[in-house]
Amino acid sequence: MIYSDIAIAAFGIAVMADLFLFKNSMLTRAAFWSSYAIIFPFQLLTNWWLTSRNIVMYSPDAIIGIRICSAPIEDLLFGFALVLSVMGMWEFWGRQGVQRN
Amino acid sequence: MLLFTLCGSGWLEIVLKTGVLRRFKRLALSILPISMFFLIWDGYAIAQNHWFFDRSQILGIYGPFSIPLEEYLFFFVVPLAAILTLEGTTTVKPHWRKGEFGE
After folding, report:
1. Which residues of chain B have a CB within 8 Å of the CB of A83?
2. Number of structural domains found in chain B
3. Is position B97 within any domain?
């Protein structure tokens, strides 16, 4: 499996888990989308920093080759999956009554 | 980049009093299981040479599975920033909390 496969899988698993596994979906809430709207430009900025300066480099064989702000498009799927799943967990533990406030 | 992310979201904790860092247990329970999966992926991708790092631009300290220290920090700092952003927006817009805990 290359980066593209795993990124798509991670994105799919995160979305499916959010919609069907967790009781209260993040994807249907304004709180999530407004947070993601804030995060997104910073994500592009940090992706650009890390890739344009060649701090991290990708094997051409591991990616589709489409780049946004110098970073492989896969990075956006990866970032979305990470942000969604962590927020989902945070809300899950809140529902379980763990340190709500 | 890590410091930028930390500062860019850290002020929310101080100014908006989101109280995320205080809720350490919930924070750890949220970040660790997810980061573990992503770090396994990271280790696999590094082993398969899907991506690699410029040795002159990293500290050169490696953790388990030849993953650079910066990557371990990344998978703590970025999830923390995400949670701070979420708590920041719901602090400013309290009505978005409605139904948060399913009641």
Report:
1. 78-79, 82
2. 1
3. no
Q: Which residue of A has its CA nearest to B53?
A: A56
Nearest Cβ partner for A93 among B4, B26, B38: B26
Quick check: B101 pLDDT over 80?
A: no
Beta strands (DSSP E) in B13-71 are 51-53
ipTM above 0.85, yes or no: yes
Q: Do A35 and B97 touch (CB under 8 A)?
A: no
In a domain, B41, yes or no: yes
**pTM surpassing 0.90?**
yes
Kindly state whether residue B20 falls inside one of the protein's structural domains.
yes
Contact (CB<8Å) B50/A90: no
Domain ranges, residue B8: 2-92
Rg value, chain A, Cα? 15
Q: What are the residues whose beta carbons fall under 8 Å from the beta carbon of B90, sequence distance 6 or more?
A: A31, B96, B97, B100
Domain assignment of residue B98, yes or no? no
